Amino acid sequence: MADNQQQPPERHFSVQRVYVKDVSFESPNAPEIFRNQGTPKHQLNLNTKINDLGEHFYEVVLEVTVTVKIEDKTVFIVEVQQAGIFNIAGFPEQELGPMLGAYCPSLLFPYAREVVSDLVVKGSFPQLVLQHVNFDMLFAQHQQRAQQEAQQDGTEPAEAVQH
């Protein structure tokens, strides 16, 4: 009789491909900026896009934008879209969100960090190595913010809606 009980689907996670989807480097104030002796300040912006490719395949795109300025002059801007295709099956809905929104971006980030560093050096600037990012914390903050906004609007967040 135990054979008649339905087994939960087997969990499967694999990285199918990692690739650069888009890249941009701009140094709008070169060559004058090379003579500026001020202290550079950088701003890091991160965003994640998820595309359901069907049949348990997902494209996750980690967008990384680094802007470096000295005073009010832009030294450089680097934009990288580091993408990956992941095969994810057998995970319950409540685990799929964190996998796509935190785990996959954390796998992509080292690749994006390398692309940023290479572009900055090729732009004739000192190497820029981005510090590790806690994507689990960012995902949790995003979920919390979405839930608060939904409560203010009187609706449920998209992730919490039951199908």
From TrEMBL:
Question: What family does this belong to?
Answer: Belongs to the SecB family.
Q: How does this protein assemble?
A: Homotetramer, a dimer of dimers. One homotetramer interacts with 1 SecA dimer.
Q: Which NCBIfam families match?
A: PRK05751.1-3, PRK05751.1-4, secB
Q: What does this chain do?
A: One of the proteins required for the normal export of preproteins out of the cell cytoplasm. It is a molecular chaperone that binds to a subset of precursor proteins, maintaining them in a translocation-competent state. It also specifically binds to its receptor SecA.
Return the InterPro entries for the record: SecB, SecB-like_sf
Q: Does the keyword Transport apply?
A: yes
Chief location: cytoplasm
Q: List localization entries.
A: Cytoplasm
Q: Which domain of life is it from?
A: Bacteria
According to UniProt, the name of this protein is Protein-export protein SecB
SUPFAM superfamilies recorded: SecB-like
Alphabetical UniProt keywords: Chaperone, Cytoplasm, Protein transport, Translocation, Transport
Record-linked Pfam families: SecB
